[in-house]
Design a protein that fits this description.
9 helices; NADH Oxidase; four-stranded antiparallel sheet; alpha+beta; binds flavin mononucleotide; 208 residues
Length: 208
């Protein structure tokens, strides 16, 4: 689909059909999401794909009654690292060393620079920074899905602490950021017919 056609076609789905997105399509969307740019490339987030229906039902109790967390084809939970900047930087630098086939010891100066630059604030602010990075990835996923004719609904209407508990995220040094349900719209979902409420470019863009 052309970009603007896809962005007009997509909407925040309220009711999904029972159809399941093929594995190869999901794999491409996950890859598209992982190609999202992030601050210094550090990608301080991970996605949890929840396949188990019984786990989804537990998450429903923390989802403001939005049963699409159970009924959608794929449920992705964006999580961010709580482990601190050194852990985030080291995870990335190991990947950089691996991909570039270079010794990790050669990256010591870069490591020190990153920790000095990004670590000069309390971990709560590092986590906030990580959430902002995760939302860029979410946006990329929503657009990638739309151009692939896959329906989505991003979801902030959740209790993140409840998600953390159900998914055991504390033990993984992760915390819930935002959720994305994916699948195919139910033909009975009237929200698909609603006009887009958006500001015109003239009210949205200010030129100076
Ligand atoms: C970060 C974020 C969180 C959202 N949370 C929810 C949600 O919990 N439930 C829901 O039905 N829609 C949710 N939405 C969808 C918005 O309500 C929707 O995108 C907006 O009203 C514009 O409508 P449209 O996406 O259908 O064009 C969320 C959207 C974003 C970007």
């Amino acid at each position: 689909m052309e970009l603007l056609d896809a962005l007009n076609w997509r909407y925040a789905v309220k009711q999904f059909s029972e159809d399941i997105i093929p594995d190869a399509v999901i794999a491409n969307l996950i890859r598209a999401t992982s190609l999202t740019p992030s601050c210094y490339g550090l990608q301080p987030y991970q996605i949890i794909q929840v396949n188990d229906r019984s786990v989804r039902e537990k998450l429903l109790t923390h989802s403001w009654g939005q049963d699409k967390v159970v009924e959608c084809s794929h449920l992705l939970v964006f999580t961010v690292s709580t482990a601190g900047i050194e852990s985030i930087v080291d995870r990335y630098l190991h990947q950089q060393a691996h991909i570039n086939d270079e010794a990790i010891s050669e990256l010591e100066d870069f490591r020190a620079y990153l920790i000095r630059t990004l670590g000069a604030k309390p971990n709560e602010q590092v986590i906030e920074w990580a959430h902002r990075q995760a939302y860029i990835a979410l946006g990329n996923l929503l657009t990638s899905a739309a151009v692939s004719a896959i329906d989505t609904c991003p979801m902030e209407g959740i209790d993140a602490a409840g998600f953390d508990e159900v998914l055991g995220l504390q033990a993984l040094d992760l915390t819930t950021s935002v959720v994305c349900t994916l699948g195919y719209r139910n033909t009975g979902d009237k929200h698909a017919l609603k006009p887009k409420i958006r500001f015109a470019n003239s009210d949205f863009l200010r030129e100076v």
